[in-house]
Design brief:
The complex is a heterodimer of chains A (289) and B (137). Chain A is an alpha/beta fold and 289 residues long. Chain A is 16% helix and 23% strand. The two termini of chain A are 40 Å apart. Chain B is of the alpha+beta class and 137 residues long. Chain B has one domain. A three-stranded antiparallel beta sheet of chain B has the order 1-2-3. Chain B is globular. The termini of chain B are far apart. The chains are: A alpha/beta (289), B alpha+beta (137). At the A-B interface, helix 1, helix 2, strand 1, strand 6 and strand 8 of A face helix 2, helix 3, strand 3, helix 4 and helix 5 of B. Strand 1 of chain A pairs parallel with strand 3 of chain B, so a sheet runs across the interface.
């Protein structure tokens, strides 16, 4: 790999940068794609490009001062200046606020947000002192998001990791296509929650609507209230002591342990009867051969 | 026909996929010649009594009271070798032979989490090069 500084790279077009970094000229023939960990790797806790921030360095942004893109850019610029705690005033339901943050950060919204709020994040801890619209925390990778009131549909759509918490109730299709992480709902969740879930955990302290966990491939759903109906291939499972200790610890983190404890929770998992993606493969192989 | 039979293999031994790298347990797997499903229990929740000092420090730096996204990281097995799936490169990263594997999955998962963090945050991670090439200035 050629050693070029960021300022030198900035002067190049994207195509020139790719070539300069050897990405299209490397001889790949005969090379193994296997990568191995280095046991002596240096310890680091954030991405190499992430600015160093201090949680004790705090500032505010008034969202009335500009459109969404400008607010999001200001968040990045403040992180580059070392601010580790940022408060957003007057969000007034704006869409797409606080997205794509790949660093540790305390982000606080004093009000409600619109759709696709705080999605695509990898690291920050977010508190929203209000409500959120559709798809809050969509594609979140790590960190935490706590919504103090209610949330719309597709809460935590395609979430990959981290804790996504709504202290109130949420709409339908909560955690649709989730591939990891934990979704916690203090109240009720709507129909088709956990639809096509692939892994991760969902905790609902209240009731669940129709077709819970429909077509789930893997993962676990814990329901504290009533389940209107289970979806295809969603089946009850035994709540183990490890489950109970994990549930108690997780809910305690957000002050959400129900008064009656967690022994009454129902655990739902995949029946694994729908693993049919491979059905035609033997035929295809024969055709090719 | 959907919904008639569980198609993957059951995990009965912690070293199952090291001793038998193909790990084709069920009839369906043998028939199609490939493993179905994960090679570890994706639903195994972590035992916090087994956290390593590095992981405790990581949680503190990030401001988390638990493992957060690392709860989904487990030690798996690729081609008869212990390995960890790195979602950022959509591929397996192997554990070197010099690292002794504990005899239980919980401790193996803690090692996997530590190795993955150190790798993802290092300068030799493929994302570093990709970012240099494709970032917006």
């Amino acid at each position: 790999m050629a050693h070029l500084s960021d300022s030198e790279l900035k002067e190049l077009t994207q195509e020139e940068r790719v070539k300069a970094l050897g990405m299209t000229t490397e001889q790949l023939t005969g090379r193994s794609m296997a990568i191995e960990f280095d046991p002596d790797e240096k310890s680091r806790f954030v991405y190499p490009w992430a600015p160093d921030v201090d949680y004790n360095k705090r500032t505010e942004i008034d969202a009335d001062d500009g459109p969404t893109t400008e607010i999001n850019t200001r968040i990045r610029n403040l992180m580059a200046e070392g601010y580790g705690s940022i408060v957003i005033k007057n969000p007034r339901g704006k869409h797409g606020l606080g997205v794509g943050i790949l660093n540790r950060l305390n982000l606080i919204f004093e009000g409600s947000l619109g759709y696709f709020a705080v999605g695509l994040n990898d690291g920050p801890n977010v508190r929203i002192n209000g409500r959120v619209g559709w798809s809050c925390g969509e594609n979140m990778m790590s960190g935490s998001i706590v919504v103090e009131k209610n949330a719309g549909s597709t809460f935590g759509a395609a979430i990959r990791g981290g804790d996504l918490v709504c202290k109130g109730s949420v709409g339908s299709r909560t955690g649709i296509d989730m591939k990891g992480g934990t979704i916690i709902v203090g109240g009720d969740t709507g129909a088709l929650s956990g639809f096509m879930m692939q892994r991760g955990r969902m905790i609902v302290c209240g009731n669940a609507g129709k077709n819970l966990g429909d077509s789930m491939y893997d993962g676990t759903i814990y329901i504290g209230g009533k389940i209107q109906s289970l979806g295809v291939d969603a089946v009850p499972a035994e709540l183990t002591e490890l489950d109970k200790s994990w549930l108690h610890r997780k809910l305690s983190l957000y002050g959400m342990v129900p008064e009656q404890g967690i022994d009454h929770f129902t655990k739902i998992v995949a029946g694994k009867q729908l693993w049919n993606y491979d059905n035609l493969e033997p035929t295809e192989k024969k055709l090719i051969l | 026909m959907a919904g008639t039979k569980y198609r993957g293999s059951e995990i009965s031994d912690i070293d199952q996929f090291i001793k038998d790298k193909d790990g084709l347990g069920s009839e369906r797997e043998v028939e199609i010649g490939q493993h179905i499903g994960y090679r570890y229990d994706v639903n195994l929740v972590p035992d916090h009594d087994r956290l390593t000092p590095f992981l405790k420090e990581y949680m503190e730096v990030m401001g988390w009271d638990d493992l957060n996204w690392l709860e989904d990281v487990h030690m798996g097995y690729e081609d008869g070798k212990p390995a960890v799936f790195d979602r950022n490169i959509n591929g397996w990263v192997r554990v070197p032979d010099s690292i002794q594997l504990p005899d239980n999955q919980q401790d193996r998962d803690m090692i996997a989490r530590e190795l993955l963090i150190k790798f993802q945050m290092s300068d030799r991670h493929p994302l570093v090069l990709l970012r240099k090439a494709y970032m917006k200035f």
